[in-house]
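wait is this the right file?? whatever heres the structure
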């Protein structure tokens, strides 16, 4: 920990191990890591960064592989902060540090329909916005009407949903801008029905995915008209292990940390699965997880 300029109120750590900030529990240190108190504190922090400073945003780190050499820049952590939520009629305005599971439950309690799928996404709204996360046939940007971003100079910008090129697991975002909040619109529904749907989705997730082991959700995007998990499974790759990383026996599109994995183990296993599926079926699987940082 180091002293911050007097106007800043957040938490700054130097040489902080990033294995504490992602769901695979691997990765080297960040040069510095900042957890802001709110978006105004974040704006002040960004203003004092060097112009050429690399910046990485991390929510729950559930879609992120950070290499063992770490990240030679500044990491902004939003989980546990930037999580205000306001519900008015059929609209929800929420900040990016809000857990997707909490968003789903708050929407259901307010009698809004169409947000239950978020209960099965193990991340924050920021990550869901950045990659158009989805489940059970619904995607994040189906309900987005407006977003707020922040740039590297700390200035806030507002955009309409139609200003973005949104595709399957991809959203175009202006360079050096990051999401800080979103306004979403839903249909009216029944609270009890939506809460029951959330319970069913979570039960299905727990039964079909290795939720009790360190992992990062789905590793690969689904190819058009098929499922990555199916292709990996019929290639005989369930249980395939490199170092401390294994293809899950429960769901083939998950790679788990058996307790001793390095980021290099996981990255090597991702590459091996890609190679084997392409050899067997002629399909090049595209990783859904973002691979960041320096090799050792």
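ok assuming it is, sequence goes like this
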């Amino acid at each position: 920990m180091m002293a911050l300029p007097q106007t800043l109120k957040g938490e700054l750590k130097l040489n902080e191990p990033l294995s504490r900030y992602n769901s695979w529990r691997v990765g080297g240190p960040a040069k510095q890591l900042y957890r802001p108190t709110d978006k105004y504190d974040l704006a002040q922090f960004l203003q004092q960064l060097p112009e050429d400073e690399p910046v990485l945003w991390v929510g729950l780190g559930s879609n992120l592989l950070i290499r063992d050499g770490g990240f030679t820049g500044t990491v902004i952590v939003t989980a546990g902060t930037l999580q205000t939520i306001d519900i008015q009629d059929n609209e929800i305005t929420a900040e990016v540090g809000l857990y997707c599971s909490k968003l789903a439950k708050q929407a259901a309690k307010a009698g809004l329909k169409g947000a239950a799928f978020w209960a099965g996404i193990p991340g924050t709204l920021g990550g869901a916005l950045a990659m158009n996360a989805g489940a059970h046939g619904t995607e994040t940007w189906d309900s987005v009407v407006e977003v707020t971003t922040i740039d590297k100079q700390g200035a806030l910008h507002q955009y309409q949903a139609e200003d973005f090129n949104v595709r399957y697991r991809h959203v175009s975002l202006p360079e050096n801008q990051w999401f800080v909040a979103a306004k979403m619109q839903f249909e009216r529904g029944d609270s009890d029905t939506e809460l029951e749907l959330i319970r069913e989705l979570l039960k299905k997730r727990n039964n079909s995915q290795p939720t009790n082991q360190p992992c990062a959700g789905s590793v690969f995007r689904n190819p058009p008209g098929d499922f990555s998990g199916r292709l990996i499974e019929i290639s005989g790759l369930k249980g395939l292990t490199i170092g401390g990383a294994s293809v899950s026996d429960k769901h083939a599109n998950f790679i788990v940390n058996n307790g001793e994995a390095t980021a290099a183990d996981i990255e090597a296993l991702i590459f091996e699965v890609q190679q084997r599926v392409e050899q067997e079926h002629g399909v090049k699987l595209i990783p859904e997880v973002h691979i960041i940082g320096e090799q050792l």
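Residues 85-208 form a domain with the Uridine Diphospho-n-acetylenolpyruvylglucosamine Reductase; domain 3 fold (CATH 3.30.465.10). so i think its the right one actually
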